[in-house]
Design a protein that fits this description.
Blueprint (H helix, E strand, L loop, with lengths): L1 E4 L4 H11 L2 E2 L2 E5 L5 E5 L7 E6 L5 H17 L4 E6 L18 H11 L4 E5 L9 H5 L3 E4 L2 H10 L8 E5 L5 H11 L3 E8 L5 E5 L9 E9 L3 H12 L4 E9 L5 H8 L3 E5 L7 E3 L2 H12 L1
């Protein structure tokens, strides 16, 4: 097995190679004078099971094109199997046509991935609202591994929450699936809030059912923090309900528009995330979860 790293997150590719006991390929990546991407794999991949790792956060156009170029090259160079890993899966937000004439970006990207010969796609906590079965659109096997158990274990091990007097909260209905995974790992209760979106950057949240957080440590988990508006609203509500401590664990911390400072200024006790999007909050690696996904894909 050989791991081919994209340029978006080479440290994660190195960790994955170590977790799998695999070789890390050498690459050459640069731009042509007109701005187009150039990608070259410097090691022989013929007959190999190849894992191509990219994380297309914050610069999705460039990283997605590089992923497609690399994937097509891997198959053209004679790889036995190609497992594509998109640790942060891009263009998942537009998964439906809400207005006439809109491009459904999720479907388009899945078609592109299939077209370059990816045999199995692995993602991490992919942002899925309405299209829950990406494999049916992709047309090849898809595995979505979760960082939620890792985030939950870190929160307890680091003393951020009391493992016995804590509750896991998803900040909106879509995040309840993540809260359930984290709560199962710790053996505690979970629930979710209801989000009302007022615009692209403004939301309100409210409780969906009775949530007893008074005097409890609350771990808020989600797949993505972008502007942080949902997290700030959730914090205000939870503190108003008597939560003793509120910490946030997220898989993909995009943290645009100075989001981290705004969240901490609001009063959130701590924010931590995984290395799918390296940033100052990164404390948990998803390499072990990805390695498990790769092993299942090859079994």
């Amino acid at each position: 097995m050989i791991i081919v790293p994209g340029t978006s997150n080479e440290p994660l590719a190195f960790k994955l190679a170590s977790a799998l006991g695999a070789r890390l390929a050498r690459i050459e990546a640069r731009r042509f004078p007109d701005g187009e991407r150039y990608f070259r794999i410097l090691d022989d991949v013929r007959g190999e099971d190849v894992v191509l790792l990219q994380s297309a956060a914050l610069n999705p156009d460039e990283y997605l094109v590089e992923f497609l170029l690399a994937a097509d090259a891997v198959k053209d160079l004679g790889a036995e199997r190609l497992i594509g890993v998109l640790a942060y899966f891009p263009y998942a937000r537009q998964d439906e046509r809400f207005k006439p004439g809109e491009a459904v970006s999720l479907v388009t990207v899945l078609k592109l991935i299939r077209s370059v010969g990816v045999d199995h796609l692995i993602t991490v906590d992919a942002h899925r609202h309405r299209v829950l079965d990406m494999e049916s659109v992709l047309g090849v096997p898809h595995t979505d591994v979760s960082a939620m158990p890792l985030l939950a274990r870190y929160a307890v091990a680091s003393g951020l929450v009391d493992g016995e007097r804590s509750v896991i909260i998803g900040p909106d209905a879509e995040a309840e699936q993540w809260a359930a995974l984290a709560a199962h790992e710790l053996g505690v209760e979970h629930s979710s809030l209801r989000k009302v979106r007022l615009g692209d950057r403004e939301v309100e949240v409210e409780t969906t059912r009775g949530i007893d957080v008074k005097g409890m440590d609350v771990l808020v988990v989600d797949d993505i923090i972008s502007t942080g508006g949902t997290i700030r609203e959730a914090y205000r509500l939870l503190r108003g309900l008597g939560a003793k401590r509120v910490v946030v664990g997220v898989t993909h911390a995009l943290l645009v528009d100075n989001a981290l400072a705004k969240i901490l200024e609001e009063g959130v006790d701590d924010v931590f995330s995984t290395d799918t999007v390296p940033n100052p909050t990164t404390r948990v690696s998803v390499a072990s979860a990805l390695a498990d996904g790769v092993r299942r894909a090859l079994s």
